[in-house]
Specification:
The complex is a heterodimer of chains A (about 60) and B (about 750). With about 60 residues, chain A is an all-alpha fold. Helix content of chain A is about 55%, strand content about 0%. The longest helix of chain A has 24 residues. The chains are: A mainly alpha (about 60), B alpha+beta (about 750). Chains A and B meet through helix 1 and helix 2 of A and helix 1, helix 3, strand 3, helix 5 and helix 6 of B.
């Protein structure tokens, strides 16, 4: 049970790190448009800016 | 393209809806620099794109714009309707704009609007607070589980104390960071000597935290850290969702003001110059070409034309104007070009006033929340009194129990479950509708929809399609139907009049020239081959060149005559068709024993035709204010009225009704007045709203009964000292959680 005295404060440190990351990502605008990005993940043929998309339908 | 159809959740606008092509503006570099970032390295052009109603739209824009050679990247923010295009330096933005307009989207420059800027800041702040409250709740909850388990199974006193000492700073941080809006608002009201829901929330939070800190310092007694963080999170969550719903209106409003033309033709030194809208001041003479929107409230100095005022009146037929008539910003010139003298700045225009009204309505608190605040004020004084009496009573009986007993009373009486009961159910019900193509604009609309027992339909566009269709044709002897229709289509191709639109898809068989649109009368043109004058329009106008034209075959339809010089050719009738599923909708609503009726501004004979086919009662030829007084008559007779409409002439009706629905294709301003906006051409959604409303009301009642009876039973028991504070806290958390979980049952509601 001794280890708990170390693990519990460590848990607190983790929470602080996660909270800091969350605030950082919100301020960077990563959560500004949840609707669009949710759909983007499903687009196979949208590979980014470098490759132009195919003209033909794939399916 | 397959992906587009798979992911489409809404229909994009069709290219015909775009009246003015404005892509050449974007080649003007000086103008571009007023809103875009243009430098040697790249050009960043922010655009406001209207009609981007679903994720698939974003996908198709990204795909097609990216294909252009000079486009480096495209960034889309769907929620804001904002598209940012990065172009390579010195290239023209015109092609990208043409692609967007060709896809049928409306494009305007995105100017940094302080309201939208503020909205984004608020959104991020609220999200940060919500996120921190969530993390705090999870971590403190984890410690609390250990503490509760330890209380049952035995736990080292040191370990117990460590868990409490760890929970304390987390809770205090959540309170200070996430919970501050409760305290701020409670404090503001306290300064004005008023109590609101936030006052009792703040008091409960402060006392529960203070008691927990006291226990932690003393090394004994009860702690409520988990209840505090959980309460903060759930209250913030409900508010966050509610606020996001209201943000959408603001975006729509900003878009509306931006539909005005950016450039205006202005008379300067006897020459027409195209100048940016902002540089035009009252007194200037401007020219508005056919199809252009009017940018200012102004007066006609020369020309006659017809003005589409659907934005204000909802009338599908335009108003004719001549010299000295007043025209309004936001309306569209559908006839010949007009010269106008500007009377007011845009900020003093009728459109700006309307936008301002809606903006203010947005700030007003919904009526039910005001009720809750009044209730809270009374409730909190009773609770404080009860706690004080408990303290005094125990002080005289057994002083050592006085503090904990009065804390238990306060914790039991905490209105957590009560304040979550309604918002939690409404949030779940609104989310259910949102997934089914209904935009919920007022978070309390579902309560009204459940209570409605009287439904008022607007006719045009609600029960019927907005587009007229050609129904019957009576031709003169020797003329066949196709010839008549082909000639009519040729004449109508230049007109944007609603009566002309059904002809636009027809094949033309005649070459016409010198076509002239005569306001409120019809169209005149010359047959190029036979060199003969043709007219299409109303009786008097056509009889003028063809005296043999017989009267209209009947009065139940909208008839247009087609004649050539000296001879009549045909009477063509246009009629409205019922929307898909209207019959089913009416039958279903009737089976629920609701009173249904039609209030329409249209002529009696045409309303009668629709009403009799649906077997509904009706009142026709009503002006917007008469509609309103009809509505108020029903309301004072005790009916709870649901109004369903689409035009801005319905806007007063939609606003005054107990609950209102704007159907697909409704004018933007009608949408801002309605509680629900149906985004699909499917009247089944109205039934879904009823269904969700009933389910939400049932859940809300269960929640309220639970929360109220919990408080009623708990309060005396706590005052008598039967409930130890830890049990009160556990009960408070459990009862809040129960209310939220009960609301989540709405997710599983069947279609």
């Amino acid at each position: 049970m001794e280890s708990l005295y170390l693990l519990i404060p460590i848990a607190l440190i983790f929470v602080i790190i996660v909270a800091a990351l969350l605030i950082w990502s919100i301020n960077r605008g990563q959560y500004d448009d949840l609707d669009h990005d949710a759909w983007r993940a499903l687009n196979d043929d949208l590979t980014g800016n470098s490759t132009p998309p195919d003209d033909n339908d794939r399916n | 393209m397959t992906a587009f159809y798979q992911q489409r959740t809404d229909y994009p606008p069709t290219p015909e809806q775009q009246t003015t092509q404005t892509s050449d503006w974007y080649n003007d570099k000086t103008w571009l620099q007023t809103f875009a970032k243009v430098d040697a390295a790249q050009q960043e052009i922010p655009l406001m794109v209207t009609g981007m109603s679903c994720a698939a739209c974003a996908w198709i824009i990204e795909r097609f714009v990216q294909e252009l050679a000079n486009v480096q990247s495209v960034n889309i923010q769907l929620a804001l309707g904002k598209v940012t295009i990065n172009l390579s330096p010195d290239s023209s933005a015109g092609p990208a704009i043409e692609v967007l307009q060709g896809l049928g989207y409306g494009v305007q420059p995105w100017r940094a609007d302080s309201r939208l800027q503020q909205m984004r800041e608020d959104y991020r702040r609220d999200l940060r607070r919500l996120g921190i409250a969530f993390l705090g709740m999870m971590q403190v909850g984890m410690f609390a589980i250990a503490l509760h388990a330890g209380a049952l199974q035995g736990i080292d006193a040191d370990l117990q104390q460590l868990l409490r000492v760890m929970s304390a700073p987390l809770t205090l941080f959540v309170l200070a960071y996430s919970g501050r809006e409760f305290f701020e608002r409670a404090w503001q009201h306290l300064k004005h000597r008023t109590l609101i829901m936030d006052s009792s929330v703040s008091l409960a939070l402060v006392l529960a935290t203070a008691a927990s800190l006291w226990s932690t310092v003393q090394g004994g007694g009860e702690t409520y850290y988990d209840s505090v963080t959980m309460f903060v999170f759930f209250l913030l969550l409900a508010r966050f969702v509610e606020k996001r719903l209201r943000d959408r209106d603001l975006i729509q409003l900003v878009q509306l003001a931006d539909e005005l033309p950016e450039f205006v033709a202005v008379l300067r030194d006897h020459q027409w110059q195209r100048l940016p809208r902002d540089s035009v001041s009252p007194g200037a003479t401007i020219r508005v070409a056919t199809g252009e929107a009017i940018a200012f409230d102004s007066r006609v100095t020369s020309g006659t034309s017809v003005i589409d005022e659907a934005v204000f009146t909802g009338e599908s037929l335009p108003r004719s104007v001549q010299k000295d008539d007043v025209v309004f910003a936001g309306t569209v010139n559908e006839g010949a070009s007009l010269e106008l003298i500007v009377e007011h700045r845009f900020n003093d225009s009728r459109l700006a006033a309307l936008a301002h009204d809606i903006d203010r309505a947005r700030e007003e608190k919904p009526a039910h929340l005001q009720l809750i605040d009044q209730f809270a004020a009374r409730f909190i004084s009773i609770v404080l009194l009860a706690a004080a009496i408990t303290f005094v009573a125990w002080w005289n009986i057994e002083p050592s129990r006085a503090f904990w007993a009065s804390i238990a009373v306060l914790v039991v009486a905490c209105p957590c479950a009560l304040s979550l009961a309604t918002p939690a159910a409404l949030t779940a019900g609104n989310a259910w509708l949102g997934r089914r193509g209904v935009r919920v604009r007022s978070e309390t609309g579902l309560l009204g929809a459940a209570a409605a027992n009287h439904i008022i339909f607007d006719k045009t566009g609600t029960l019927t399609e907005t587009q007229l269709v050609i129904s019957t044709i009576r031709t003169a002897q020797g003329i066949d139907t196709d010839t008549a229709l082909g000639t009519a289509a040729a004449l109508q191709q230049f007109s944007n009049h609603p009566a002309a639109r059904p002809f636009h898809h027809r094949a033309q068989n005649t070459a016409v020239r010198n076509v002239e649109i005569i306001a409120a009368q019809g169209v005149e043109g010359w047959d190029s081959e036979r060199n003969i004058k043709l007219r299409l329009g109303n009786l008097a106008f056509c009889r003028h060149i063809a005296p043999g034209l017989p009267n209209r075959p009947d009065e139940n339809h909208y008839w247009v005559a087609l004649v050539e010089d000296g001879r009549w050719l045909a009477w063509i009738s246009l009629s409205e068709s019922l929307r898909l599923g209207t019959q089913h909708l009416v039958a279903e609503l009737k089976s629920e024993a609701l009173t249904l009726e039609i209030l329409s501004g249209d002529t009696e004979s045409r309303v009668r035709q629709i009403a009799s086919s649906l077997d509904l009662t009706f009142t026709a030829e009503l002006k917007p204010d008469e509609k309103l007084s009809e509505l108020q008559k029903r309301q004072s007779a005790g009916a709870t009225v649901m109004a369903i409409g689409d035009g801005l002439n319905d806007a007063p009706l939609l606003r005054a009704a107990d609950v209102s629905i704007a159907v697909a294709g409704a004018t933007a301003l009608a949408q801002t007045q309605a509680d629900f906006v149906i985004t699909e051409e499917n009247t089944d959604r109205i039934l879904m709203i009823r269904k969700a409303a009933h389910a939400t009301r049932r859940i809300t009642r269960q929640n309220l009964i639970w929360a109220a009876s919990y408080n009623l039973v708990g309060l005396p028991l706590a005052a008598l000292g039967y409930i130890p504070p830890w049990a009160a806290a556990l009960g408070m958390s459990a009862s809040s959680l129960l209310v939220v979980l009960n609301a989540l049952r709405l997710r599983r509601l069947k279609d």
